[in-house]
Design brief:
The chain has two domains: 60-159, Oxidized Rhodanese, domain 1, CATH 3.40.250.10; 166-274, 3-Layer(aba) Sandwich (Oxidized Rhodanese, domain 1), CATH 3.40.250.10. Helices cover 39% and strands 16% of the residues. It has eleven helices and 14 strands.
Length: 275
């Protein structure tokens, strides 16, 4: 007959069970330390990683500061990194159109500070421009707010001359062919007849005595126009004549009138046409 376990047997069994559990716990502890002792904590990993490079933004100058510096005779180079079509549509007086591709090799004249003209709506071009400029050692600033802010402030711009623009229309004062002929044949001493045709068109036909500066060169050569002149401007067609009048106004030359119509270069106009 099978004997029932005694009280001592039960105590011994419990002791074995507890001892086994302790062995398992101690063994698990040391195994865990072995497996994970070399695994860095997440915060340790973050601390060990190199800090991301900080992008130093190119400093900005606003329009008011630029105007003040210009009044103080500081020397600037305005570099317009917008597309060529946007530049020709309107740009800052004396600015240069330089693409981001060409900017990498651009070096300003000694002693001049570069002002970058851009469109605030074109973030990619600005970022590319700043990346290139961080490698340069010459002084350079971004035009704060881009050309849009410059324009909103009513600052000087050279425009292509859009006949559908009310603003450009307001810049032009016309003189009729009959009124001009009276002026031409009885001229005041300060009359300047300004021909803004292309060179090819000028050589085909122009009014005798006209001073020729092609429209595309007028901004650069405006210093050749005598101060205080009574100016009558014309081109090879009505559009060029209009654009010539707009360009004079944009250059702050307000003594000019634009010859109206398109008959002034014809032999029957009553004017001496050369050659």
């Amino acid at each position: 007959m099978r004997e029932l376990p005694t009280s001592q047997d039960k105590k011994n069994a419990r002791a074995v069970l507890v001892g086994g559990l302790l062995v398992l716990l101690v063994g698990g502890y040391f195994i865990g330390r072995t497996l994970f002792k070399d695994t860095p904590k997440e915060e340790d990993i973050s601390a060990a990683l190199p800090a991301p490079a900080q992008s130093n933004p190119i400093p900005e100058l606003d329009a008011n500061t630029i105007r003040q510096k210009l009044m103080n005779k500081e020397q600037f180079v305005f570099v317009d990194v917008r597309g060529q079509a946007d530049f020709e549509s309107e740009h800052l007086l004396g600015s240069r159109s330089i693409s981001t591709g060409a900017l990498a090799t651009f070096v300003p004249e000694e002693g001049r500070t570069v002002i970058i003209v851009f469109s605030a709506q074109d973030k990619n071009t600005r970022e590319t421009t700043e990346t290139i400029l961080r490698q340069k050692s010459y002084p350079v600033f971004m035009l704060k707010g881009g050309i849009e802010a410059w324009k909103r402030g009513g600052n000087q711009l050279i425009s292509a001359g859009d006949p559908n623009s009310f603003l450009d229309q307001s810049k032009v004062t016309y003189i009729s062919l009959d009124e001009f002929k009276k002026l031409y044949f009885n001229p005041p001493t300060n009359l300047l007849l300004l021909d803004v045709q292309t060179t090819e068109a000028y050589e085909r036909a122009h009014i005798r005595g006209a001073f020729h500066i092609p429209l595309k060169e007028l901004e650069k050569r405006s210093g050749e126009i005598p101060a205080g002149s009574t100016i009558v401007v014309y081109g090879e067609n009505e559009l060029t004549s209009f654009q010539g009048g707009v360009r004079l106004a944009d250059l702050n030359i307000f003594t000019g009138k634009t010859l109206a119509g398109s008959d002034y270069l014809k032999k029957e106009s009553g004017l001496p046409i050369e050659p």
